[in-house]
Amino acid sequence: MKALTNTQFHFDGQTGVYHGKVRDVYTIDDDIIVMVATDRISAFDVILPEGIPYKGQVLNQIAAKFLDATADICPNWKLATPDPMATVGLKCDGFRIEMIIRGILTGSAWREYKDGCREICGIHLPDGLRENQKFAEPIITPTTKADEGHDMNISKEEIIAQGLCSKEDYEQIEQYTRRLFRRGQEVASRHGLILVDTKYEFGKRDGKIYLIDEIHTPDSSRYFYSNGYKERFEAGQPQKQLSKEFVRQWLISRNFMNEPGQTMPEFTEEYIESVSERYIELYEHIVGDRFQKADSSEDLAQRIETNVREYLAGLKKK
User: Fold this and answer.
1) What's the pTM?
2) Which one of 95, 100, 235, 247 has the fewest CB atoms closer than 10 angstroms to its CB?
3) What are phi and psi of 171, to 5 degrees?
4) Distance CA 71, CA 197 (A)
5) Contact status, residue 198 vs residue 181, Cβ threshold 8 Å
6) Which helix (H) or strand (E) holds 201?
7) Is 123 exposed, middle or buried (0-12, 13-18, 19+ CB in 10 A)?
8) Which of these, 61, 78, 267, 95, lies nearest to 169 by C-alpha position?
């Protein structure tokens, strides 16, 4: 199986490129962006040494489906998906924050709570909560958006005080966040899942707020299976989940959390294939359709470049 871990495209009118942890973003004429979902995988703020075949296609197609399914709630950046691994859309000026919303106490929030923390991003949490317990109402725990290193928790008041977002804009994206999460929960429920937590990113263009980047993918979201959730919670058992958390737990079990002195474990072909299969499983459960593997017999980068070039050429003719 082939994996795409690097792109070096040069599109007509290209005015910039940014290589992120997972996505490569090309700017065209300072107006349009081409976002390529590579097969890179990251955990604990580090890019892991091997790519995961079909992971990029999974993420790109899930995000595209949910962008379309939530366009009635919030305008978004997407124009088209000319390739299974690429989306073309409007360039927006992104807010330097990520809006994280949580419906259940788990993951990093649980780890902080278990260590005695009772306030996250200015939100007070009562004593006596248990791992994987549902909140009475979802809580929003924003973080700063770091180009490198760790994102940091931040409160609404700090965001406004630091000028990262105006009060008016923050209240709008907070409303969008709650409505998008509610829609995501409704879709997940129809597929036998619980949308546990997720993150959204927003930007502005011509004074209008847009949803940008990905949405409701297993890299940005955590899902539990609905069936058995209550029984496992009451018994204090781990939840059966669909998210990238299984990769994090695999790393943790091998003593790697990207801390000083730790060594990255080896990624065998068998493990890489199992992760690829897990991402495909995630797609099929989250979307509710069979995953159709894109043709990987040809050069993946060449296929993407050809498809994007054809779309951009047609766009300029309009």
Assistant:
1) 0.90
2) 235
3) -65, -35
4) 20
5) yes
6) strand 193-205
7) middle
8) 95
Q: Tokens 């509610």 identify what position?
A: 182
**Ordered DSSP codes for 258-315:** S-TT--PPP--HHHHHHHHHHHHHHHHHHHSS---PPP-SS-HHHHHHHHHHHHHHHH
Specify the amino acid at residue 107: G
For residue 233, which of 198, 194, 188, 181 has the smallest C-alpha distance? 194
